[in-house]
Amino acid sequence: MAAAAQHRVRRGHFAAAALVAAVLGAAAPAGHAALFEDDEARRAILELRQRVDSLQQSAARSADDAAQMRRSLLDLQTQIETLRSDQASLRGQSEQLTRDAADLQRRQKEMAQGVDERLRQFEPAKVTVDGREFQADPAEKRDFEAALAVFRSGKFADAAPLFTSFVRQYPSSGYVPSARFWLGNALYATRDYKGAIDNFKGLLAAAPDHARAPEAALSIANCQVELKDTRAARKTLEDLIRVYPQSEAATAAKERLARLK
């Protein structure tokens, strides 16, 4: 566009110069003075000068317009580059936000799983002990198994208070009949026969159909024998054979009853 403006300026200058030359050429010969008066010649020259000035001003304005357009184009190009840079920055920020959101979701999922796992540690769970299935808190299971482990290690004197504490702390627990059975055996091992009898009788009274009930009745008879109460031992053995006739404890009771006679 600037080249076109310059071309128009040059073309205007050429036209003006040609017009001036034509007028001057026509007015030069002295013999033709009659054709133009001096005033008319001056007016013609002034008009030509005005036209030349007008063309020059127009050309200058065209050059200014071209320069302004170039500046506008440069400004527009700068704005476009800025927009492209901003767009790239926003794209990068969007991608980072997407990664951050995914990472946050992953951490929240891991935290939720961790919370669920910790909560499950305090929730009742189904357990089976001595053929019985019931719900037990993790604390119950832990304390019962800890006491039983001490008993099985042969530390009967240490196991007895653990089972006693368990029965007092969890009186409604499904572990209680089994805890009483093992407590009775721990007391028997430490020769606390009366205490053992009380625990075995507690098992029979609370859970007569428990898998350990026949063994508990046989253990009562053994304690009574140790206490030299033969009559009570005989009755206990007879009741055992009558109530639990199909149990292994009943078979053992028959043999012991025969020896007591």
From TrEMBL:
Main location class: periplasm
Keyword annotations of the record: Cell cycle, Cell division, Coiled coil, Periplasm, Signal, TPR repeat
Keyword Cell cycle in record: yes
Pfam family, one: TolA_bind_tri
Residues of the signal peptide: 1-33
Stretches forming TPR repeats: 177-210
GO CC term, one of those recorded: outer membrane-bounded periplasmic space
Coiled coil: 38-107
Start and end residues of each YbgF trimerisation domain: 70-126
GO biological process: FtsZ-dependent cytokinesis; protein trimerization
Domain of life according to the entry: Bacteria
Localisation per UniProt entry: Periplasm
Family: Belongs to the CpoB family.
Function summary: Mediates coordination of peptidoglycan synthesis and outer membrane constriction during cell division.
Protein's recorded name: Cell division coordinator CpoB
Organism: Paracidovorax wautersii
Gene it is expressed from: cpoB
